[in-house]
Amino acid sequence: MGPKRQTVSLQEKKNRILNFFQETYTFYNIKELEKSIPKKCGISPMIVKDLVQQMIDEDGVISVEKCGNINIYWCFKNQTLQKLYDSSELIKKKIQEVKCDIATYKQELDKTLATGRRKKFTVGQKSYNREALLEKRKKIQDKIKKKSNSLQKIESIRWDAAKIQENKQQIRLKKVHLEKTTDNIEILIDYLYKKFFLKPEQIRKEFGIPEEFKEFTEV
């Protein structure tokens, strides 16, 4: 069994192609690349064209120009260095812009905090006293709280159609529960009489149970 073939990653293949261009320092058409790259880089000729196109469109490290009826490809070391330099300068510019934004926001924040700490401050052309405004705010909050408490008391004693209906329903439920309880008492008295021969009159007298329970009218 022969040795296991090592898998080459996509990035490694691109690196090999890039080194090929920069070491030869010349121009190629696609036919020449499909012939030379497999020999020099150990890459299948079937994927050379796709890899080169990726390095043009996505990576931007290979240059291409149309010359007559064919495309000419090249990549020199100074191009790569220039690309890195341009990218570096762009990043530096963005960093500087962000630093300027941070400085501006910090100044605005410091100004806002300083204004917030002063006893007196101005908004537009009108001056305000911080302590007076806080006191006014507290009084308004106290008034709102008192009004809310008064409203809750009024709501608790005010009878409207909905509240009357709600109370009627509660009374009906209590009446049903009470009737079930009295029925159970009568059943229990009858059971004690039949089981232990205790007279109903004695049971009622002993436990203070009336001869008849009061009937409640419908609500």
From TrEMBL:
Places the protein is found: Nucleus
Claim: Ligase is one of the keywords in the record: no
Entry-linked InterPro entries: LZ3wCH, Mnd1, Mnd1_HTH
Keywords associated with the record: Coiled coil, DNA recombination, Meiosis, Nucleus
Annotated Leucine zipper with capping helix domain residues: 164-213
GO CC field: condensed nuclear chromosome; DNA recombinase auxiliary factor complex
GO MF entries: double-stranded DNA binding; recombinase activator activity
Pfam family, one: Mnd1
Domain Mnd1 HTH: 17-77
Residue ranges that the Swiss-Prot or TrEMBL entry lists as coiled coil: 88-181
Segments crossing the lipid bilayer: none
Job description of the protein: Required for proper homologous chromosome pairing and efficient cross-over and intragenic recombination during meiosis.
Membership in a protein family: Belongs to the MND1 family.
Name the record gives this protein: Meiotic nuclear division protein 1
